[in-house]
Here is the input.
Amino acid sequence: MTTHRTRLLALPLLALASAAGAQQVDLSLDDTLTLGETEVAYRLDLGLSAVAPTRVRVDALLDLRDFQERLPELLAGEPVSDGCGNTTVLEEITVTARDSVVGVSGTLNTRFFHCGRTSDTGFERGELKSELDLGFTGEVTTRIADDCIVFNIVEMDLRPLKHITEGTEDSENLAAARTLLREAVNLVLADRPLCFDLPPELAPLAPSYDTVGPREIGDGGLGISVSGSVDVSTRTILSILSVLQREGAIPGPP
Here is the structure.
């Protein structure tokens, strides 16, 4: 754990330690996280309030507008599916928040190939049969898994960007693509959760999450609202403060 990150964590931890007595503590943190090779900035607004002698309620608003702005470059050219008979690449994506709903739209390129069996379990891709450019729209939901935010697209609609005549091979390919891509896009998102690198020293806080959901920030900006609670028993706080003192993030005992 770097000294920089430790110092960022020292402030909320000290606030947590005093929240049970103060009843309400509000604070904000600005930091960055790395997605692939890209550094993304975020802001975290925290509201801490005492709900029990050893637990503090946490209401957090995560400002992901920089992530939202960089998402098109992060995912451009990302393969969505790559099978013997077809491949699909994400070409464009746009994310916009409205109140508590996040809308997503973009374009996909799907290519269909001849696929021949080479053995009982083997297949070989052959020549290109056809190619479709598809537009998609949908709504995004969020959930917490292993301290990461996982995105999922629901009510996803796929449409061809050019006219397709019913009963043709392209029409059949489009029907197959709709079934495949709804699942494939969400598998891609599930493999790319938004995780925040908290050090293992914070494990004693034992966070428990009640609700998580999108929240609009400003005009269409992406935010995530999270509510839950953490353990602030004397033993937990002393353990964490001891680590912070060893790291030099806060003064040691007199």
Remarks:
- The CA atoms of residues 75 and 90 lie 7 Å apart.
- Confidence is low (pLDDT under 50) at residues 1-7.
- The chain has two domains: 1-46+53-58+229-254, 68-190.
- The first helix runs from residue 3 to 22.
